[in-house]
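Appendix B. Chain record.
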Amino acid sequence: MSTASARLPEGRYGRSSDERADRRLKIAGVVLGGVLLAVVGFFAYHYVAQNEISGQVIAFQASDDAVKVHLEVHKDSGVDGYCTLRSQSADGAEVGRADFRFTGSATRIDKVVTLRTTARGTTAELLGCHTG
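Structure tokens predicted for this chain:
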């Protein structure tokens, strides 16, 4: 006695709809992955290559109405820009914020700036540096 096979004969009815759906999902995944990679690459390039000014807070000293901030800025020669600093009190409230401009041909600027505050500041935070 022989048993009947539950499978369809090979090649007689074409590919199943599951195989077609799997192929479409693979193609859609590759396309979306490529788009995502391109977007991440664009933003990475913009952040690294287009950022002509960078800075860091070296040290700060707080008093009742100001914070003296030792700021080090690296920039391309001839690029003008500004860095934004802020200070917060012990309870986290912002007590001072200001932009400090940098011009000239120097590529490294090491300067102590004074950030006026409305109360005693306990932090000095560099929010960012921008051209312009």
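Further analysis of this model is presented in Appendix C.
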